[in-house]
C-alpha cells in the first residue's frame, strides 16, 4: 500500500517524546509523496508540524488489537507498538506475560503475584499453548509434553527475573511429573542456589542480588518422573570467587569442630590471596 494511503487524514502515528518515549498523534492533512513534513494533532489538541526526514513515523495499530496477548498478531510490529501493548497489558490487565510467536515476554512486577500456585500449575497441565493466558507454565507444559531433548532459553537484563522464571519452570516439571525420592529436584536445586549466588552474585544499580554468571540447568527424566538435575556455570568471573574470602571463613565456622583439620589459619583475613 502506498504511503499516501497509509498516512491519509485521520491516520494515527507514533512520534518520539522526551518523557513518554512515544506519543500518539493524528494526521490532519494527508501525506503526499515528496512532502517534507506531516501535519499532526496531539492528544491535547495542539498542532504539530513534524519533519519527515528519511523515514515516516510508525503507524498505530487499530484499537481492536490493543492489549493483544500475542505481539505477532499486531498489524504493525515495531518498538512503540510493542511498548504500548506491554504497557496496556501490565497496567490495565495486570498481565506480566505476553507471547511474541514462540517467545514469551515477561515483565518483572517486583511483587508477589498469586499466579504460581499448585492449582494454576494443574490448570495449564495438558493444555496447548494459546488455550489459556500467556504464562511460563504454558511453555513448560509444551516442553514437558514433547518429552525430548530441548532447552528453555531465559534471557534478559539484570533484574528482569531470569532466575525466578527458571525456578517456576522447574516447579512445574516436578509438580506435574513428580520426582523420584523424598526430596524434589526443585528443592535440591534451590538449596544449592545460595552457595553459588554467594560467590557469583553482586549488587548492581538495578538489582541488589544480580547473578554475575550464567547457569545451565539440565533436568533428567525417566518416563514422566524427574530423576535429577545437573547445574553448570559459565561466564563466572574467577576473581569474584577469589576475593570472597570471607565466605570461606563463614563456611569453616559452620563445620563441626571434630571435622576441622588440625592446622588452620589464625586469621582468614590476614592470609594473602594466591589466585
From TrEMBL:
Q: A single Gene Ontology molecular function, please?
A: actin filament binding
Gene3D superfamilies in UniProt: Kinesin motor domain
* Domain of life, per lineage: Eukaryota
What is one Gene Ontology biological process annotated in the Swiss-Prot or TrEMBL record? actin filament organization
Q: Where is the Myosin motor domain?
A: 66-275
Where does it sit, as one GO cellular component term? membrane
- Residues annotated as binding ATP: 156-163
- List the keywords (alphabetical): Actin-binding, ATP-binding, Motor protein, Myosin, Nucleotide-binding
Q: Do the record's keywords include Nucleotide-binding? A: yes
Question: Which family, according to UniProt?
Answer: Belongs to the TRAFAC class myosin-kinesin ATPase superfamily. Myosin family.
Q: What's the protein called, per UniProt? A: Myosin motor domain-containing protein
Its taxonomic placement starts with:
Eukaryota, Metazoa, Chordata, Craniata, Vertebrata
Amino acid at each position: 500500500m502506498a504511503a499516501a494511503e497509509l498516512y491519509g487524514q485521520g491516520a494515527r502515528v507514533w512520534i518520539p517524546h522526551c518523557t513518554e518515549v512515544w506519543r500518539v498523534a493524528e494526521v490532519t492533512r494527508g501525506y503526499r509523496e515528496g512532502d517534507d513534513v506531516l501535519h499532526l494533532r496531539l492528544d491535547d489538541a495542539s498542532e504539530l508540524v513534524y519533519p519527515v526526514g528519511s523515514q515516516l513515523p510508525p503507524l498505530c495499530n487499530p484499537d481492536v488489537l490493543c492489549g493483544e496477548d500475542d505481539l505477532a498478531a499486531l498489524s504493525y510490529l515495531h518498538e512503540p507498538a510493542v511498548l504500548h501493548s506491554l504497557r496496556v497489558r501490565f497496567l490495565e490487565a495486570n498481565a506480566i506475560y505476553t507471547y511474541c510467536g514462540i517467545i514469551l515476554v515477561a515483565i518483572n512486577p517486583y511483587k508477589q503475584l498469586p499466579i504460581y500456585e499448585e492449582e494454576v500449575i494443574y490448570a495449564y497441565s495438558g493444555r496447548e499453548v494459546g488455550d489459556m493466558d500467556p504464562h511460563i507454565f504454558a511453555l513448560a507444559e509444551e516442553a514437558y509434553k514433547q518429552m525430548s531433548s530441548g532447552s528453555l532459553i531465559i534471557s534478559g537484563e539484570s533484574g528482569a527475573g531470569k532466575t525466578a522464571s527458571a525456578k517456576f519452570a522447574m516447579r512445574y516439571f516436578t509438580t506435574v511429573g513428580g520426582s523420584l525420592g523424598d526430596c524434589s529436584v526443585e528443592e535440591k536445586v534451590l538449596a544449592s542456589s545460595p552457595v553459588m549466588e554467594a560467590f557469583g552474585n553482586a549488587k548492581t544499580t538495578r538489582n541488589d542480588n544480580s547473578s554475575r554468571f550464567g547457569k545451565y540447568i539440565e533436568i533428567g527424566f525417566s518416563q514422566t518422573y524427574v530423576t535429577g538435575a545437573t547445574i553448570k556455570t559459565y561466564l563466572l568471573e574467577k576473581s569474584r570467587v577469589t576475593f570472597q574470602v570471607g565466605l570461606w571463613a563463614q563456611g569453616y565456622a559452620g563445620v563441626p569442630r571434630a571435622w576441622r583439620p588440625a592446622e588452620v589459619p589464625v586469621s582468614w583475613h590476614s592470609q594473602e590471596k594466591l589466585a
